Amino acid sequence: MRPINNQQFRIFPLLTLPSCTFSPLSAFASWRENSPFPAVVFRAASQSLGSVFQLFSLSTLDFLSFQVSAFRFSLPTIMDLLTCDLPGIKKLRSGKVREVFDLGEHLLLVATDRISAFDCILPNAIPGKGEVLNRLSTFWFNRLDFIPNHMIETEVSLFPAELQPYADILRGRAMIAKKATPLPVECVVRGYIAGSGWKEYQESGTVGGYKVHAGLKQSDRLPEDLFTPSTKAEEGHDEPITWSECRQLLGDEVALRVRDMSLELYRYGRAYAASRGIIIADTKFEFGVKDGEIILIDECMTPDSSRFWPADQYQPGGSPPSFDKQFVRDWLENCGWNKQPPAPELPAEIVAKTAEKYREALTRLAAPASAPN
Ligand SMILES: Nc1ncnc2c1ncn2[C@@H]1O[C@H](COP(=O)(O)OP(=O)(O)OP(=O)(O)O)[C@@H](O)[C@H]1O
Ligand SMILES: [Mg+2]
């Protein structure tokens, strides 16, 4: 270390670092008199010695690239949301992805950036994921207005005053919804044979308990759309149930109603998505009861609740690349993890590719159609 001779430098404090002349460690832009470019000097002041020491200096370019990396590094901590607590607002439930808050008459649902795979929440956040899920559900809830749903408000500036202090956290990823009593069944609809449906078909020639004719290839379109419900497990795996078990659980009238609504929603969604180059191979809906009426709740045809395939890469006989978690699943399959919690940390590259896929799903489906020429 050598003492700085202030006569050789013109010194300017850099506001981007916690620098001030009184702090023991500070950073300054310094122009040597014989150079047009400033150097960045980090210096330490020693009160006992009564002098200032130069620790090291960086060229302007090195300093700028350091600042850019520091900014990029700090971005995820500003923008990603793994958990969400809103002091003063009562949290009712923390799901795999959503945090549910009690607003009295209504609920506040906040979609975090959590991602789960193989029924395990991963340690990473996927930047922008919560917003994609919320915006896509909002898009569908608006379009699918022939079935009542729980959505009340997504515009944060119109949220109640008690939520305004949290506007920056909530913007884009939150929805005020009707408080319903969820039905204890997940309403799965399949238009194509994939995942557990394909596994069951290979073992028993059935899908969700329905006999399906022989000779189908993996990912083939099913001869007819199938309603294959499952239980809604509080924790762990949702277990598939047969149609008669579903009727026993819900009662005939409700079971028939949610089956018909699920098929109608799926068929509409599939036809629309096809026009945007996406195959919705299957999806899962949740319904709840509000004031005696059955309404669609939770999320709607997002990459988390559905299998999205890019139509231009669809080829029966294998597993088409899916829009969302394919990179995550492939990486987890190959990293030697035993699929028991805790899950390993994903590499930055997998996180970035996954975030990009979620964004693409939203853009493809919800972007306004390009204007006719
Ligand atoms: N309008 C609503 N009224 C009551 N409960 C709701 C409503 N909308 C959603 N929920 C519940 O809020 C929770 C949302 O959490 P999240 O979407 O993370 O679900 P999860 O059940 O943990 O996982 P997954 O949906 O992947 O099975 C779910 O338990 C869902 O049933
Ligand atoms: Mg859910």
Biggest sheet statistics? 7 strands, antiparallel
Number of strands: 21
Q: What overall geometry do the principal axes of the alpha carbons give?
A: globular
Tell me the name of the CATH homologous superfamily of the largest domain. Answer: ATP-grasp fold, B domain
- C-alpha-based Rg, rounded: 27 Å
Low-confidence stretches: 1-24, 46-50, 71-78
The fraction of residues assigned to DSSP E strands is 25-35%
Q: Which ligands are bound? A: adenosine-5'-triphosphate, magnesium ion
Proper CATH architecture of the largest domain: 2-Layer Sandwich
Structural class: alpha+beta
Our measurement of the CA-to-CA distance between the termini, rounded to an integer number of angstroms, reads 68 Å
- How many individual helices? 8
CATH topology descriptor of the largest domain: D-amino Acid Aminotransferase, Chain A, domain 1
What is the CATH C-level name of the largest domain?
Alpha Beta
- Could you tell me the mean pLDDT? 85
User: What portion of residues is helical?
Assistant: 25-40%
Order of helices and strands: EEEEEHEEEEEHEHEEEHEEEEHHEEEHH
Tally of domains: 3
